[in-house]
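Justification of computing resources. Each target in the renewal requires a structure prediction run like the one illustrated here; the chain below, 222 residues long, is used simply to show the kind of job we budget for.
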Amino acid sequence: MRVTWVHPSWRDLVVEHLATDRQARRDFLASCELHGAQLALSTAGGAAGERTLPLLVDDADWDTFADNVHRLCRDLGHDDVARLLGAIDTALDSDPYNVELDSLAELALATTRRRFAHEARPLTPGLAEAWLRLADIVAAAPEPPDLRATWDASVPRPGDAATGRLRDWRALVSVLREYAPDFLREVGYPERYRGWILAGDEMLVDRWDPAVPRSPVPGRSP
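Resulting structure tokens:
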């Protein structure tokens, strides 16, 4: 049996019930889908915003939830995987010294990296950003996935100037410029792609130098 979500108005009732019932909490953590995982990873909950990671009370909770996160990372669609990685990122950003949370993030990154290698399909810019952004703050993050297929699938073709493909490519460039500048240098950006760099992007390209380390994002590890 899998636990699906019902309605946001039930959120506090669910948390209050599960927080006091160890077995029910474990059953939930073992079987919940994306929305339940987001609830377990939620921060600033409760009436005064004081509630953080409300369902992860003891070591057994973390172990149970980690097994489910591993499953979700293998089974969810790419958009939902991006949301799950984003939820882990937000939680870790709010509690950067939480060893259990760091280990969970490392597990999610490793699982998705293996999945991406097996699928050998392009990632969306949103998923690439979610993965790279989370890896940026994880102590023992795995090597980034191979982004060549993602890049090749995103590079515009003649006639794409007015399509979403150009928009997606520019979004991917923005992500890689922030988190993987070495990859951009390897594919010859921007020199090989100046024909697709529109006037609005010239300032960004002129300011970007892959040889210069990027500035740390405020509140995140350098």
